[in-house]
């Protein structure tokens, strides 16, 4: 089955700096890669996703890049703000039309004012 | 506003008790999921359902069962709770493959 590795497990940045979280996956059949943000006391919420027919996608301060050959994808947050502090999870679908997602172990991002 | 609700935010049970965790979604989604979240382990899939009365095992189904009698409701059952089932339980729903999963707020279960 799919295996998703996520690094780093914790990340501290100064407000205004950029943050990068990286994930690798194992199943070459996977072609949907979402990122979720989980704030304290809440369930995860989708912030951006990418499909394998594109290499990069941006939404304001957030961007995701995908390298299918190397089987890795990354989340980039620019101009970080204190409200970006949360746990971020990457995920990959299990391929072939499956509804299932395999999640990484999460990255706790702290933005220091 | 789309919504996934879970019956309890916090629950404390005794070892050996039968525990029911309820999840309701109002988006008419066909697919529903139960995850377990533990520190350092991320989200792990326990069971999912792609239709009423249909269920599939996820990665960690041992010690759990599920019930889906109505489209909007998906229940997770711990037949005989054990201390190693102390965890955060998250329910989610989605309209289809490669689509956003909408999560509930979670139930933090403590088994004493």
Span between N and C termini of chain B? Answer: 37 Å
Overall structural class of chain A, as computed from helix and strand content, comes to: mainly beta
Question: Roughly how many Å is the radius of gyration of chain B?
Answer: 13 Å
Shape of chain A: globular
Number of strand segments of chain B: 11
Question: Which term fits the overall shape of chain B?
Answer: globular
Give the oligomeric state: heterodimer
List keywords for this structure.
heterodimer, A: 113 residues, mainly beta, six-stranded mixed beta sheet, 11 strands, B: 112 residues, seven-stranded mixed beta sheet, four-stranded antiparallel beta sheet, 53% strand, globular
What would you note in describing this structure?
- The complex is a heterodimer of chains A (113) and B (112).
- Chain A is mainly β.
- Chain A has no helices and eleven strands.
- Chain A has strands spanning 4-7, 10-14, 19-25, 32-38, 45-51, 56-59, 62-67, 72-77, 86-93, 101-103, 107-112.
- In chain A, the strands form two sheets. In chain A, strands 2, 4, 5, 9, 10 and 11 form a six-stranded mixed sheet that branches.
- The mean pLDDT of chain A is 93.
- Chain B has 112 residues and is mainly beta.
- Chain B has strands at 4-6, 10-13, 19-25, 31-38, 42-49, 56-57, 65-70, 73-78, 87-94, 102-103, 107-111.
- In chain B, strands 2, 4, 5, 6, 9, 10 and 11 form a seven-stranded mixed sheet that branches. In chain B, strands 1-3-8-7 form a four-stranded antiparallel sheet, with no helix packed on it.
- In chain B, β9 (87-94) and β10 (102-103) form a beta hairpin.
- Chain B is globular, with a radius of gyration of 13 Å.
- The N and C termini of chain B lie far apart (37 Å).
- The model of chain B has no long low-confidence stretch (mean pLDDT 94).
- Chains A and B meet through β4, β5 and β10 of A and β4, β5 and β9 of B.
């Amino acid at each position: 089955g799919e295996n998703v590795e996520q690094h780093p497990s914790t990340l501290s940045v100064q407000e205004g700096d950029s943050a990068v979280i990286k994930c690798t996956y194992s199943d070459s059949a996977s072609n949907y890669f979402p990122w979720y943000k989980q704030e304290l006391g809440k369930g995860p919420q989708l912030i951006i996703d990418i499909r394998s027919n594109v290499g990069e996608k941006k939404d304001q301060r957030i961007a995701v890049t995908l390298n299918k050959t190397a089987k890795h994808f990354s989340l980039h947050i620019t101009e970080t703000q204190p409200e970006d502090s949360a746990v971020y999870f990457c995920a990959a679908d299990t391929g072939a039309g499956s509804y299932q997602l395999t999640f990484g172990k999460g990255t706790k991002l702290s933005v220091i004012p | 506003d789309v919504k996934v609700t879970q019956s309890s935010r916090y629950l404390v049970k005794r070892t050996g008790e039968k525990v029911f965790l309820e999840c309701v979604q109002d988006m008419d989604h066909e697919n529903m999921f139960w995850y377990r979240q533990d520190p350092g382990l991320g989200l792990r899939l326990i069971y999912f359902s792609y239709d009423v009365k249909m269920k599939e095992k996820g990665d960690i189904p041992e010690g759990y069962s599920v019930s889906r009698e109505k489209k909007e409701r998906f229940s997770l059952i711990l037949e005989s709770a054990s201390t190693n089932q102390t965890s955060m339980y998250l329910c989610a729903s989605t309209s289809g493959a490669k689509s956003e999963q909408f999560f509930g707020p979670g139930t933090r279960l403590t088994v004493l």
